[in-house]
Known about the structure:
Elements: H1 2-21, H2 23-48, H3 55-76, H4 78-86, H5 88-94, H6 99-122, H7 134-159, H8 165-181, H9 195-203, H10 205-217, H11 225-250
Amino acid sequence: xxSALVGIYxxxxxxxxxxxxxxxxxISSSVxxxxxxxxxxxxxxxxxVRGGGSDYLRFIYPGIIAMSVLFxxxxxxxxxxxxxxxxxxxxxxxxxxxxxxxxxGRALGGSTVAVMQGxxxxxxxxxxxxxxxxxxxxxxxxxxxxxAFSMTSFGILxxxxxxxxxxxxxxxxxxxxxxxxxxxAMFPTQKGLPVWMHVLVSIDPLSYGVDALRQTLIGxxxxxxxxxxxxxxxxGAIVLAIGVWYFERNE
Length: 251
């Protein structure tokens, strides 16, 4: 167990250190959600809300935080393919640590980086006219970490089955964009949707993460928060378990 904990910590520290030292990555990955928030958000609020206004910006703000966490989490798993290609993964697997600790270390590292990205977006809350209590912030960070861990685990599950970066990008984009747009991040999902779309929204695990963040930061819940947390945690546990099984079987 001691060697497993050392392995988890080392891989976590590696991912976090690489992110902190990569200033262009921090800047570019921070600009994208802000563009969605202020450019797309203001544009859609002008088109669909009479006279524009900031209500729509406040509505999509938790969804943009979830988007930043989602994209950062899943794409952090691409480093598994890089490590496999350049031989680092083989060296890690040869170390005297259990293979499941490698997967968990990568999941924790990607989750921490994703929470750091989400925190950057969270700093812009005063710009959209929002302020939070300490309890709201604490719960928001906890929710961001749970979403990040689940989505990083999902990315690991995809990455262990892929052998090229191009294949990973195609598969992830095929899954990622529908998952984001069906999560309710950009539009309300309580009513007015076709039955087939409502079903897809209901089975999208990110819908529950977005709903938990939204009701924590601005209210307007769809589901009970305990259900949101339960779905996100269960989804993360299931995909991580499958990812670890594939990891031990294939690598």
